[in-house]
Specification:
Radius of gyration: 21 Å
Structural class: mainly alpha
Number of domains: 1
Strand content: under 5%
Order of helices and strands: HHHHHHHHHHHHHHH
Shape: globular
Oligomer: single chain
Number of strands: 0
Number of helices: 15
């Protein structure tokens, strides 16, 4: 049963201009995702300044573990949130609450299971991710903490997605901001005051996520909140549908781990530890930029899913048009910043050897070309995912950071040297964007269309 506050919230989604609704979700989503990226970047800045470039490279090798936690939370969280918003659009509140409870239960169970398995084989996992004799101690210290306490990251991230889909993107943003602030303070205390080493940096990340999750529970106090826990009941049919819809988001995060491992391995082969250190700087910067594009997707997803459930195709299409234009504008701005300020960006992470600094600056200027295309790919992946075109959404995620990227990492360095490594992602993003354009043109004559269904 919907009360007046619930009705007003849903009606504003349908009566306010599409641009106004998009901005209402976009700004807090962008800020929230940037705050999430701060968590990893802060680790890099503090570790780099306190413990040096080898420790920084070690943390960078272990970062894919964080990506795995994010992958699980987004796999179930985005899949469940799509179904949740569709049910809200169709005014099916009881079904929406069942999806919410089921998704949180599934996330918690999967995280604990996978973390236990990864902890048992953590040594082999570290070697697979690119650890060598120099970086292994730092990799293990950082990884051990994340594997034990990382479930807090998945719960917070998934809960944040549902709060955003329930019409409260500002609280979702506030939770991520609180997490970032706590992480900054705790990193300083644990590294510079208590001298906990890289393990202290990982511990700061886990504690910050726990506090951020607590902030999200304030959403239950709102009168217009429709999020409610109901009696948990495992449904294989619901789990299958949730995992199918959320699979592209899972692959996107796993792709980030493949990207990091692939670049580390390529750099070790072509440039040694100098290359890995230079890439570690770029990878921290990339995590910030990537989160901006994920923020675009986070703003689009609740709207497209809701409009799909409500049968409002015209608003669904207009949302995507606005999002694609915004993505290109953001990508162009980031590209120009990279060209102009690459030297300053690298210096932010500390004083490195001249060859490391020079390689990182070159890497930023070449790699940032990819941001011209990356945003549009993220927006279209989100659209295809929310409209049950899961195969195309999966193609985007698999191609851009797995198939094409790996193929280019094997071939381009033979032609261009280390410049070929930096250009692997920009070229793969361009190719994927062209395939999306061809797909849309062939499927619907250049228009975005999908039959509505709750």
């Amino acid at each position: 049963m919907l009360n007046t506050d619930n009705n007003n919230k849903l009606l504003s989604m349908e009566t306010d201009s599409v641009g106004k609704v998009f901005i209402r979700y976009l700004i807090p989503s962008l800020i929230g995702m940037l705050m999430m990226s701060v968590n990893v970047v802060v680790d890099g800045i503090f570790v780099g300044r306190r413990l040096g470039e080898i420790a920084l490279a070690g943390v960078n090798v272990a970062v894919p573990v964080f990506s795995i936690y994010m992958a699980i939370s987004l796999w179930v969280g985005i899949g469940g949130a799509n179904l949740y918003s569709r049910h809200l659009g169709a005014r099916q509140v009881r079904e929406a609450r069942t999806v919410f409870t089921h998704s949180l239960t599934l996330i918690f169970s999967l995280t604990l299971l996978l973390a236990a398995v990864a902890f048992l084989f953590r040594g082999k996992l570290a070697l697979f991710l690119g650890a060598n004799d120099e970086t292994m101690p730092f990799v293990m210290d950082y990884m051990n903490v994340l594997l034990v306490g990382g479930f807090a990251i998945t719960v917070q991230n998934a809960f944040s997605v549902f709060v955003r889909n329930d019409g409260n993107p500002n609280l979702s943003m506030a939770s991520l901001m609180v997490t970032a602030v706590c992480n900054i303070v705790l990193n300083y205390v644990l590294l510079f005051v208590l001298d906990f080493g890289v393990a202290g940096s990982a511990l700061a990340l886990v504690i910050g996520a726990t506090i951020g999750a607590c902030v999200l529970f304030l959403h239950f106090l709102r009168k217009d909140s429709m999020l409610r826990f109901v009696a948990p009941r495992l449904s294989w049919a619901l789990a299958k549908r949730t995992l199918a819809i959320g699979f592209p988001s899972f692959v996107a995060e796993i792709g980030l781990a493949v990207f990091t491992a692939g670049y580390n391995i390529a750099m070790v082969h072509w440039a040694g530890t100098v290359g890995v250190s230079a890439f570690s700087v770029l990878n921290y910067v990339h995590s910030v930029m990537l989160m901006m594009f994920l923020g675009l997707g986070a703003a689009v997803q609740p709207l497209v899913s809701y409009y799909r459930g409500a049968g409002l195709q015209s608003r669904q299409k207009e949302t995507i048009r606005i999002a694609v234009r915004t993505a290109f504008g953001v990508g162009l701005f980031i590209f120009l910043v990279g060209l102009i300020a690459a030297d300053g960006i690298v210096s932010l992470f500390g004083s490195f050897a001249e060859d490391v600094h020079r390689m990182a600056v070159t890497g930023i200027r070449l790699f940032f070309i990819g941001y011209l295309f990356m945003g549009s790919n993220f927006v279209m992946m989100t659209y295809f995912q929310a409209t049950d075109q899961v195969k195309m959404a999966t193609w985007i995620t698999v191609a851009r950071e797995m198939l094409l990227m790996v193929a280019l990492l094997f071939t381009l360095p033979h032609i261009l040297g280390t410049a070929g490594i930096w250009l692997a992602i920009p070229l793969s993003e361009l190719i994927v964007m062209l395939t999306v354009f061809v797909y849309v043109r062939r499927r619907s004559g250049g228009t975005l269309a999908a039959s509505p269904s709750p």
